[in-house]
Design a protein that fits this description.
Layout lengths: L9 H21 L5 H11 L5 H8 L3 H13 L3 E6 L2 E9 L1 H22 L5 H33 L1
């Protein structure tokens, strides 16, 4: 199964998957009152995304899922929608002050939890750096997947 990474056994790859799933569950509990889906959307808005379609691409979820999450966040007063001049179909999304405060608070709680877990590693800094590098790799992976889908669509035209 694992023929792409030298020196990594299937067992260690499976252990990494299990660890990520367990970490995700720990973060899920720490994110309350937000769900992780809420947090991902708010965090992407905080990072500068402002369109639902781009959020869906960045977060690798369907547009209906993003719409439902944005609807929920807007009802709770965490996100606003405004019309985009010159584009009747487009809506710009933005964090409210309360939404920005929530994302900061939750991000700090999540960072504390990750810090607490990685502090138990032999080299806590390497764990943090590996997770940050994993985030960069995820962005790269999604960009490659998106480019492949676009190339496939163009080839089919």
């Amino acid at each position: 199964m694992n023929d792409q990474i030298d020196g990594v056994t299937d067992a260690s790859l499976h252990a990494a998957v299990d660890a990520l799933a367990r970490l995700a569950r720990m973060l899920e509990r720490s994110a309350a009152p937000l769900s992780l889906a809420d947090f991902r959307v708010l965090s992407a808005l905080d990072a500068g995304e402002d369109r639902a379609s781009r959020l869906a691409e960045r977060l690798a979820v369907g547009k209906p899922a993003i719409s439902a999450t944005v609807d929920s966040l807007a009802k709770r007063g965490l996100v606003t929608r405004t019309k985009v001049d010159g584009d009747q179909r487009a809506t710009a999304l933005a964090l409210t002050d309360d939404g920005a405060a929530q994302v900061r608070e939750v991000k700090e709680r999540l960072a504390q939890r990750v810090g607490a877990v990685t502090s138990l590693m032999g080299d806590p800094g390497s764990g943090i750096r590996a997770l940050a590098e994993l985030g960069d790799a995820i962005e790269c992976y999604h960009a490659h997947q998106q480019a492949a889908r676009q190339a496939e669509r163009k080839a089919g035209e």
